[in-house]
Design goal:
It is elongated, with a radius of gyration of 35 Å. The longest helix has 15 residues. Helix 2 runs parallel beside helix 7 and helix 4 packs parallel to helix 5. Strand 6, helix 5 and strand 7 form a beta-alpha-beta unit. With about 475 residues, the chain is an alpha+beta fold. It contains seven helices and 32 strands. The strands form eight sheets. A six-stranded mixed beta sheet has the order 5-4-1-6-7-8, with helices on both faces. Strands 9, 10, 13 and 16 form a four-stranded mixed beta sheet that branches. The chain folds into four domains: about 190 residues, Rossmann fold, CATH 3.40.50.410; about 90 residues, Immunoglobulins (Immunoglobulin-like, Sandwich), CATH 2.60.40; about 80 residues, Immunoglobulin-like (Sandwich), CATH 2.60.40.10; about 80 residues, Immunoglobulin-like (Sandwich).
């Protein structure tokens, strides 16, 4: 979804004449990086001219550039276009002379800009354009917070080709949040132009309400993606990260009623949260705290009333993707599975009973900070089959089938040794047919025998092979 679609909704209520517009442009060495065969500085020149060309000529404008004259100077910051009415030809000439070279002194560049604005006393909307991290000293986020506190400055940030740099993205979003503005992520030249057009309109004087989204997991701040919708259309998005500078995350919106989707990042098994009817107003920020703290599933399994060995799988509801798995053991305590809250499907498979039916429980709800206990029971009996000819043990293949079925639920080889003969099968109680096939004994017939295995009991069959 394009920036114009996501953000134009927010820019409909302009309460007064626009404030002064100030650009702070990145001309550090990394702006020579290539996008679609063209340097980022070239994309930036084109986007600036095109977006500024859509503003009225009486719009007051100033342009600061950093990193364009010296390679290692953290004070390489210059106002290349003094404050005054827009003059596109002048700006175009100035931009053509900018040659990226140096560092990225975000703090110092904003400090220079804010100091000049403070001297003028006029309200201004500042748009910072950067393709990466601070490479000098200073806390640009805190500096911007102080400037915004004067009530004279709003700061928007356009991150140009920084989407894959999570640390850098977090730092840039912090500046936007601290400045009461919006962070725009532009991954290419087209998105850069769209972002600048929207930033130009997001004036300090427009009406603004605040939605603050805080996300936590087991008492710690956690990273989530926040999407804001109005009448089914996404109009804003943000990310909280795990830093107190961006969590809670503040989104500046027009006063209205919204739907909010919060999606956890990096938390396996956690499902997004949906919130309807979120009313934000200019009276006070709307605070939405989303708790993804884990819940606990405690599972106990038994066979014939005693602890048993089972595989326990917790799955996505309606699917087969495993979220967590554990194993219970004989003579062991119940197992515990700590998982994000939400709906799950649960499967219990016996590891000791041949042919035991899979136990399934659908759509179990695990709540944050709570323990959900489940107990499951299996029934079984023991079937023993000895294979011999006269008094000698005989090597055979022994299979056990539910009576009337064509497929065995288990089979084993008896060999002619006391350690393995008789063959033992733990099976659910029921009626079975046992099939014995001699090995290496030509002309000996296959023997079959019907039997019933009661719960908790042992049934034995001494299979004596008949002479051919």
């Amino acid at each position: 979804m394009s920036f114009l679609v996501q953000w134009a909704f927010l820019l409909t209520a302009m309460q007064s004449e626009p404030s002064s517009l100030v650009y702070v442009l990145d001309a550090s060495g990394s702006m020579w990086g290539q996008l679609s065969g063209k340097a980022k500085i070239e994309w930036a020149r084109e986007a600036l001219i095109q977006s500024l060309g859509k503003l009225p000529q009486q719009q007051m404008f100033a342009l600061y550039v950093y990193g364009h004259r010296e390679e290692s100077n953290c004070n390489d910051i210059e106002m290349v276009v003094p404050a005054g009415p827009l003059q596109i030809d002048q700006i175009q000439t100035v931009l053509a002379k900018i040659k990226p070279k140096g560092k990225t002194p975000l703090h110092n560049a904003l400090k220079t800009c804010f100091s000049a604005l403070a001297e003028s006393g006029n309200p201004a909307t500042v748009v910072l354009i950067s393709d990466g991290l601070e490479t000098c000293d200073g806390d640009a986020c805190e500096l911007t917070r102080q400037a915004f506190g004067t009530g004279k400055v709003r700061v928007h940030v356009v991150g140009f080709d920084v989407s894959k740099q999570d640390q850098g993205l977090s730092a840039l979003e912090c500046i936007a949040q601290a400045g009461g503005g919006t962070y725009f992520d532009a991954s290419d030249g087209e998105q850069l132009g769209q972002a600048l057009e929207l930033a130009n309109q997001a004036d300090i004087n427009r009406a603004s309400a605040q939605l603050q989204v805080e996300a936590r997991n087991n008492g710690e701040l956690m990273d989530v993606a926040v999407q804001v919708f109005n009448q089914g259309q996404q109009i804003a998005s943000a990310r909280t990260y795990t830093s107190a500078s961006t969590n809670p995350r503040t989104l500046h919106l027009e006063p209205d009623t919204y739907q909010v989707k919060v999606t956890p990042i990096g938390l396996r098994g956690a499902t997004p949260r949906q919130y309807e009817g979120i009313e934000v107003s200019t009276d006070q920020p709307y605070q939405l705290v989303v708790d993804f703290s884990s819940g606990m599933l405690r599972v106990k399994t038994e066979t014939n009333g005693s602890p048993t060995d089972c595989a326990v799988l917790l799955l996505e509801p309606g699917g087969k993707k495993t979220i967590a798995s554990r194993r219970t053991y004989r003579n062991a305590e119940p197992i515990e599975m700590e998982v994000p809250p939400g709906l799950y499907d649960l499967e219990i498979k016996s590891l000791t009973i041949e042919g035991a039916a899979l136990i399934e429980e659908k759509s179990i709800q695990i709540q944050p900070g709570q323990v959900l206990e489940r107990s499951f029971s299996f029934d079984s009996g023991l079937c023993e089959v000895r294979t011999r000819f006269e008094s000698n043990l005989v090597d055979c293949i022994v299979a056990i089938l539910p009576r009337g079925a064509n497929k065995a639920i288990a089979q084993a080889r008896s060999y002619a040794h006391e350690k393995t003969n008789p063959v033992k099968f733990v099976v659910p109680p029921g009626a079975y047919t046992v099939k014995v096939t001699p090995i290496d004994r030509k002309n000996y017939a296959v023997e079959t025998h019907d039997l019933t295995v009661p719960k908790g009991e042992r049934i034995s069959w001494d299979c004596i092979l008949a002479k051919p």
